[in-house]
Amino acid sequence: MPVGLIVMKWDIRLGTKIEAVYPEEIEVSEDTLMQIYSAHEYSGEPGVISLMVGPLNLVSYYGGPDVRYYVVLLLNLDEDPDAYEGGLSDISRLIIQNVEDKTFKSLLPSLFHRISVYPSLSEELRLAITYEDQVKRMIIERLREEGVFTKSELVIWLKDKNRRGYVDINALIVDLIKIDLIKESSVKGMPSELIFFINDLLISRRPPPNKLLKNSVELGLPENFVNDYYIEVKNFFQNYHPSEEDNLKLINIFMDPQVYETLKLLRTSISTKNEIEKLKKKGVEDIDGVLKTLWENQMVHVFQSSEGIEYYALLSDFYITKIFPKYILQTIISEYGVKSKSDKVLIEYLNVLEDAYFEHKAQLKAKSEEST
C-alpha cells in the first residue's frame, strides 16, 4: 500500500515548491525534492521514473517543461514501482488538468485511493478506467474510423482537439499499448511511427450470470419469487438499447469501490440487507447509498417477503471486454481503394492484425480453460 502522494512544482526563483500532500502529515526533505527534480531534468522528457532516495521508494511523474509539475507517489520499500506506473500517469493527468484553479487538491483523497488499488485491479476495471479517460476515448473513436495513423498525426490532432487540456502523448500511447488496444511500429519510408488499432472495447449491460437465474433458490431467493425474477430481467432487456451515454454513466458507477464490491457480491448470490451489511468489513460504509445507486440505475431489483425481508437481486450487470475489430478489414479495403494510406502501411497493418488475431484467440482459449 502506498504511503502518500505529493504534488510539487518547480519555481525558477524558489526552486522546488510543494503544492499539496496527502495525507497531510507526510513530510519530505528539500534534498529529496531536489533529487526528484534532478532525476527528471536529466531526461528532460515528460513521463514516469522510479528511484530510491535514502529510505524512500518513489515513483514520480513529470508533466514536462511547459507544465513544470511533478506528482510523486511514496511507496513502502518492498513494493514494486513498476506496478504503479500506469496508474500514476492516469491520476497525474487529472491533477495537472486542474492545477490552475487548485481544484486538484479536493481530488487527492479519491485519487490516492484509486492508485493504491491500481496493481490489484481486475481487467474489467482497467478497461473501464481506460474508456473513462476522455482523451483515450477520443483516440479509440478515431482509430475505429481509420485503423491506423502516424504518431505525428495523432500529436497534431490531439493538440487541436484538446487545446485547453494537458496531454502527454507518450504516456497515453504506453497505457493503450499495455492494455493491448494498440501497437506502435515503424514502416520504412514513413516519417513517424505508426499507431495500429488491434483490439476494440465492447461495452454494454448484460443479464445476470446464468447461475443466478437457473439456481436462484440455492443462491438466496425465496422460491415464490423465482418466476418474478425471470420476468423482471426479461422485461428489462426487451426494452434495453445500448448507448454511449448509458455506458459512460455505468462506468462512473462501476468505478466507485463501494459499488464494485457490492456488485461482486450480487454477481454470486441474491442477498438480504443483513448479508450486504457484512461488506462493511471490505470498506463498503455507505450501504444505503450504494443500494440506492444500483436501484436508480436499474442494476438491482428488490423483492420483499411477507415478513418484510428485502432480497436484492442483480437485474442488469455491467460488461466491458476486448474484442478483435473484424470490421476494420473493410476499412483497410476502402483505404486501399481510395489510396488514403500507402500500400506499405496497409500491408503492415494486415500483418499486425494477423498476429493480434491469433493472440486474441489464444487468450480466449486460456480463459475458457481456466473457467472449466
Characterize the structure shown.
This protein is an alpha+beta fold. It has 3 domains: 4-119, 2-Layer Sandwich (Beta-Lactamase); 125-199 and 325-371, Arc Repressor Mutant, subunit A (Orthogonal Bundle), CATH 1.10.10; 202-320, Arc Repressor Mutant, subunit A (Orthogonal Bundle), CATH 1.10.10.10. Helices cover 48% and strands 20% of the residues. It contains 15 helices and 13 strands. The protein has helices at residues 30-43, 85-96, 104-116, 123-132, 134-146, 151-161, 169-178, 210-214, 226-238, 244-254, 257-266, 273-277, 287-296, 328-338, 343-371; strands at 4-11, 15-22, 47-53, 56-62, 69-75, 148-150, 182-185, 194-197, 200-206, 271-272, 300-304, 310-314, 317-323. A 5-stranded antiparallel sheet has the order 2-1-5-4-3, sandwiched between helices. Strands 6-8-7 form a 3-stranded antiparallel sheet. Strands 10-12-11 form a 3-stranded antiparallel sheet. Strand 11 (300-304) and strand 12 (310-314) form a beta hairpin. Helix 2 runs antiparallel to helix 3 (104-116) and helix 4 (123-132) crosses helix 10. The longest helix has 29 residues, at 343-371. It is globular. The two termini are 33 Å apart.
